[in-house]
Structures are given as structure tokens and as C-alpha cells.
Amino acid sequence: MITFxxxxxxxxxxxxxxxxxxxxxxxxxxxxxxxxKIGTGGVSGEYFPMGxxxxxxxxxxxxxxxxxxxxxxxxxxxxxASKVRTGKYDFGIVQSDVQFYATKGYGPFKKAGAxxxxxxxxxxxxxxxxxxxxxxxxxRALKDLKGKRVNIGNPGSGQRTSTDLVMHFxxxxxxxxxxxxxxxxxxxxxxxxxxxxxxxxxTAGHPNAxxxxxxxxxxxxxxxxxxxxxxxxVNKYPYYNPVVIPGETYLGxxxxxxxxxxxxxxxxxxxxxxxxVTEVVKSIFRDFTDFKFSHPAFFNLDPEQMIKKGQTAPxxxxxxxxxxxxxxxxxxxxxxxxxxx
Length: 341
Hints:
By secondary structure, the protein is of the alpha/beta class.
């Protein structure tokens, strides 16, 4: 009954205002038969299948929730956060460090400034800073990248943001490499095995389709990312954690690889209607087993951790409403202040 009354109210707003102003993509407009857009990443990474898994869960209940969902391939975290801000996407999947930068106006968001309207929804799996090299390139540790041809990622990706930060802590610039490239996640594996680059940097959950593709096409190694500079980086920023990629994750990688990582998170705008956010979260947890087994990177997802960790933006009221109704977590609205950079 409440939903019906809300829809009627929204309908009258649309009649009264020519064109039905939408702020952002859904704003306060009628949700019935709308399509919400989720910004993801390249089709060979984990963000795109994650977005599809979320949309599949929503679309199964489309008649009940009153809207459909579409997963949009994008340049990654930075682009997703930016387009949520401008209303081009209703939701975006972003790395937890990128979420922090967006809320503070740091790094790639310095020009646009802090996004006061960004809201957290959920976190998902750990994403590790991963360096993949051709086995014959002579790269075994992070320091060995100097003088090599390295794909550092495109400017709209969380991969590039993390790489820039690592370079800063190592005291490197692009001049320290023989060549840097900005290939997408779908291009870098082919470039590695065709000897166009010696290594690529990738922030990803494991196992990863793009890295698996490279391992099948040519001998690769996963490079150790653990030195004094990385230890300082991890200690300074609480959204980073030490991570170990297990041995045998990919063909020919028989040893464990130390590195560090972030969490993937789902964000939205404060202007997204509460009902929409509540129904998206509800759809994910309603068929949680199906969601977990939709991709190998999701197998170890834990609902409690998805709600507690990785967020620096305030939670959206629609997400909080679902958490409280289900008794998942009593204190999610008390987000700890992020440290100054």
C-alpha cells in the first residue's frame, strides 16, 4: 500500500513538472519500469560479472520491485564513482581506496572535489594488487620492474590509481620504466604474450579470467609485491591489507605470492530512492547462494563482512533499512572517520 501511494505521488510530480527531472538517473522519479544502471569494469575482469550477478538477482524480482537492472561495462572504479556523482550511473562498483579518494576529493577526484553525496551500500571480495610478468622477462620482485615495459592501466581504473600510489611510495616516475602503456584489462594479456609488454599491473580478485588467459597463452610469473615501501603504504592506509595469492592459482604459478589489497564496494548517490537501494540489497541476499556461486571470486563472500568492512562513505539509508530489518548489524551507520592523507 505504501509503495502504491509513493508511486502515485511520484506520478503526480511527473505530470506537474515537464520532463520529470531526474536526480540522478532515478532521482525521486517513479521507479516503475525504470532501468537502473550499474557501472562495472572491463568484460574480462570481475566487476562486469559482479554487476551482471547483481542485475540477475534484481531482474528475477523485477515485477515485485518495479524496476529492471543493467550492468554497464566501463573503465573501472574512478569512472564509476564519477558517473554516480553526475547521475549517469545509479550504482557503481569501486575499490575501497577509490571510494575513500572520492569522498575526500583526493587523487583523480582533486579537480571535482569531495563527493558529499556518495553513499556506501555493500562491500564484496578482496582485490589484490597483482603484477603479472612473462616468465622470460627477468621480473621476480617489484624492484625488477624498473627499466621494463609495463602496462600501468588506463586513467579511469582503480588499477591505475593503485599503481600511481605504489609508484609514489617507491619514489618512481614513468621515466623509471622503458615504456608505460594504458591498455585495458581485455588487451593486456595478449600484449604480454606477444612480447609487446614485459609485465602488467592488475587489481583483481582471484582467480581472474584475464590472468588465467595469459597463463594459458604463455609462461607467466606472479611478482612478489612486498618491500619496505609497500609495508609503509599498508600501515598508512587502513583500507589496504597484506594479502597472499595462493600457489597454483594459475598455470605455472607454483608458489604463493605476497602482495596487498583492497575491497571491491558498491556505491550509490544519496539521491537514489531508499526503496531502490533496499530492493537491490534484498535481491542480493535473498538468493545469496546463487550469487556466491555465479563466479569463483565470490565463493568466500561473508554477509557480515560485506556489511562491516571497506566503507568510508556514509551508508545509504536504503541499505541501513535492510540491515536493521534483518538484524544483520546494529552499528553500520557509525562509519569511522577516514584518516587524513
